[in-house]
Amino acid sequence: MPQLETATYLSQIFWLLISFFSLWAIMAFLIVPKIEQVLESRRLKIDDYIQKAEELNKKAQISLEKYEKALAKAQADATQRLKDASKDLEQDALKSSAELEASLLCKIQENDEKMSKLRAESLNKLNKTSVLLALSLLNKAGITTATLEKLEALSEKEGRHGANI
Fold first, then answer.
1. Is residue 2 part of a domain?
2. 21-31: per-residue pLDDT in tens?
3. Are 155 and 131 in contact, with CB atoms under 8 Å apart?
4. Can you give the pLDDT at residue 160?
5. How many domains does the chain have?
6. Considering the domain boundaries, does residue 113 fall inside one?
7. Could you give the angle at which helices 32-140 and 148-164 cross, rounded to 10 degrees?
8. SS3 for 147?
9. Is the pLDDT of residue 74 over 90?
10. pLDDT tens track for 9-56
11. Pairwise CA distance, residues 158 & 62, whole Å
């Protein structure tokens, strides 16, 4: 085997060193710097993306806080408006109820007055009819001394006594 011959050791070591240092130089000065450059650019891009993501996250957090504040304010406003509307409706209902009650009382009084007038008129007509009937019966019975004026006076006198009872 030619590798084990001692006469070629020196040339093998020489070429081994030249090959090793040549490959080392190519790797150290050409390939590794390009790899480092690619890795550095990737790291910078990743850092840039992380920084942008953090900025967007901060903006999102700020927007979320603003949204939550606006939502809380809107809920508070809505609650207050509902309370105000409820109070207004309650006041309107009480006012309408009071107006309706006053109107009904007024109508009840008017109806009572009308009923009193109708009652008085009915009683007056009944009284006149009774007087006329009594006069007619007395005349048929042959009593001619009874006159319409006497019977009306008697009826009025009795009517007052009956009203006092």
1. no
2. 999 999 999 99
3. yes
4. 58
5. 1
6. yes
7. 140
8. coil
9. yes
10. 888 899 999 999 999 999 999 999 999 999 999 999 999 999 999 999
11. 98
d(CA 165, CA 161): 7
Structure tokens at 116: 């009193």
Show Cβ contacts of residue 139 under 8 Å, excluding neighbours closer than 6 positions. 146
Residue appearing with tokens 């007395």: 138
Length of the chain: 165
The reply to whether 1 falls in a domain is no
Average pLDDT over every residue of 132-151: 79
Give this prediction's pTM: 0.43
Question: Could you please report the per-residue DSSP string of 117-142?
Answer: HHHHHHHHHHHHHHHHHHHHHHHHTT
Q: What gap in Å lies between CA 27 and CA 20, rounded to an integer? A: 10
Instruction: Output the average pLDDT for the chain.
Output: 88
Cβ atoms 116, 133 nearer than 8 A: no
CA proximity to 110, closest of 102, 134, 76: 102
How far is Cα 71 from Cα 74, in angstroms, rounded to an integer?
5
